[in-house]
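Hi Q.,

Before the meeting this afternoon, I wanted you to have the magnesium ion prediction in hand. No need to reply - just skim if you have a minute. The sequence and ligand are here:
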Amino acid sequence: MKILCVARNYPLHAQEMGAAPPEKPVFFLKPATAWAASGEVGYPAFSQRLEYEVELVFRLGRGGKNVPVDKAAALVDALTVGIDFTARDLQAQLKAQGLPWEMAKAFDGSAWWGAWLPLTADWPEKPFRLLRGDTLLQEGYGRDMLFSLPELITEASRYFTLEPGDVLFTGTPAGVGPVAVGDHLRAFLGDTLVGEVWIRSAP
Ligand code: MG
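Predicted structure with the ligand bound:
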């Protein structure tokens, strides 16, 4: 399994990061060891600013290479809501030096997602949300993505052979922010609770 992620796929998030919306999707990868399968995320020892990015996450049931856009949606077999955890302070340092982001984005525990749900046609119209306790932290709609799901799959498959079981994070809407040790986060798609996350002290 590989974890494919898209940067700046919601115009208002690009704006809050001080970046222009890209003309083509920008991808980055997280290794399988980034997956926080248990729902427990250790606050990284190398960061003072761990941030959540709530995102729609899709699972591929089939693979492909150079997938035509009209065939791309058929590769997807499930969706859920996940968190692309980011060491924002380290990312800012790396960006300022023009260096790759992986250390700030692909560390252990940096990718979490909830229970897989069947793909239904109305997902772009359903709100996806992240709450801390009962407080809404972030909310978005798939309809606001800059690049559609088929466009993302087609473009990704030009660079990376897609395989069954691969996971695609489709970018975060505006409203990212910090977490702290002890936080309890809950992710929803529409009214469905897909899963919960606890932030623990450094492993
Ligand atoms: Mg993200």
